Amino acid sequence: MSTENIPVLETRGITKRFPGVVANEDVNLTLHKGEILALLGENGAGKSTLMNIIYGLYQPTEGEILVNGTPVQMNNPSDAIALGIGMVHQHFQLVPVMTVAENIMLGSESVKNGLLDTRAVAARISELSQRYNLDIDPYAIIEDLPVGARQRVEIVKTLYRNADILILDEPTAVLTPQEIEGLFEVMTLLKNQGKSIIFITHKLKEVLQVADRITVLRQGKTVGEADPETATQNSLAALMVGREVILTVEKKPANPQGVVLAVEDLAARNDLGDPALRGVSFDVRAGEIVGVAGVQGNGQTELVEVVTGLRHADAGEVHINGQRMTNATPRAITQAAASCHVPEDRHAYGMVSPYPVAENLVLNTYNLVPYSHGINVDTRAIRSHATELVKQYDVRTPSIDTPGGSLSGGNQQKMVVAREFSRDLNLLIAAQPTRGIDVGSIEFIHNQIVAKRDNGVAVLLISSELDEIMALSDRIAVMYKGEIIGIVPRAEATREGLGLLMAGVKDERVPV
Ligand SMILES: Nc1ncnc2c1ncn2[C@@H]1O[C@H](COP(=O)(O)OP(=O)(O)OP(=O)(O)O)[C@@H](O)[C@H]1O
Ligand SMILES: [Mg+2]
Description:
The protein is built from 17 helices and 24 strands. By secondary structure, the chain is an alpha/beta fold. The protein folds into 3 domains: about 5-240, P-loop containing nucleotide triphosphate hydrolases (Rossmann fold, 3-Layer(aba) Sandwich); about 245-340 and about 425-510, P-loop containing nucleotide triphosphate hydrolases (Rossmann fold, 3-Layer(aba) Sandwich); about 350-425, no CATH class. It has a 6-stranded mixed beta sheet with strand order 6-9-10-3-11-12, sandwiched between helices. A 6-stranded mixed beta sheet has the order 18-21-22-15-23-24, with helices on both faces. A hairpin with a 2-residue loop joins strand 4 (about 60-65) and strand 5 (about 70). It binds adenosine-5'-triphosphate and magnesium ion. Magnesium ion binds near residues 47, 48, 408 and 409.
């Protein structure tokens, strides 16, 4: 056999067992030189586990890995790196206060006369940056860089260590549409220069756009391959989930009632102390979904934080159910207003990783009836609540006693959504509620959001996915540079019109 046909990477019969879970079962996967292989599968299907095995972070229970046709043994990531394998994790592993070059030097040796030779490192970074069109300044400080640039630093880091095989685990989940296009250009350039890429995503459109081949995992097993030339979003969804998935949301016209959330002339600063909200006013009525669209970084995050009590407002007012809630504590807002919040960053605000699933499901209600009576905690009530929610929201976990942090990324998100949606509420604030969630579960969560609306809940939805905003919202507010540049009824909204508003172009014909 000529070397042309030998895969650069192959897994044969990989099985990985965790206590109570078979995460991978007899997985066979091949990756060829110069191709982008998309790895698809439901939340908990075993994608990240398989990648962690290929990167030497986990040892397989059974099976073997071949690199360029030779069986290899990897005991840790250094072994994988030495074999030309690089991985970009979803949670970046960069030190915020250090420069790009310093971060890249960490753990790789560029020592001259006992000192780290920053200049040589920087020169090599610039060269790689140019070659793969990565637009990276080696002397930039990480914390000053937007998410898309930090991700490119992670990519440069793997290239600096001579990776030929790149694993990208859900790289687009945290990017803006513009950044995603940029990443795809980089991926195409890498592949054209002979690199091989494994790309994980839940967005089927992206798979069809960039993949050369598609492998699908279901419940730890490889269930098939698909050809991006002939596959459709529907066929991929069916292959992943094992049933037809309805990719559009069905809903009746809204029947808005009284104002539940009123925001008036709100001003606040971001973490750097710069103005992030500059006089934001809008309201959300019972029985309607108001979507907030905008390019990430135009004040959406700060808006949600101020409204939920996580950030201080410098000026302006927030009223919920007619009650003044400006700068109230998160707890007061959650409880007095029966509001709930699906946070954008589940690790920072949404869950406590070492706590069992059952406790994560009552994080902000454990002290209330029916889970507590006076000082007595009712463990049985907590457990039956957890059992019910895990079933209803299809949170895939070996048990309700499993630590929340050992669930797959998407199942952690489903756990947070289940907790927040299951409360008796009249205001739902959902920021990126389906980030990292598979198509089958998105269908369920979208239907739940519409059902809440139909039950008279006021819904404020913040999403960087324009598709999600368009699918769910009754009115769409677009944020630009800390202001709401327009509020458009859904029926009058077009993708192009919203795109213009998101770019700061105000159309006179669009009602504001
Ligand atoms: N460190 C761990 N300890 C115990 N169980 C684990 C661990 N890591 C993963 N699992 C389990 O293995 C299974 C597969 O998880 P994995 O993270 O590989 O899924 P995934 O396909 O990446 O899902 P997602 O799309 O949600 O990221 C899940 O049931 C998960 O709970
Ligand atoms: Mg994963």
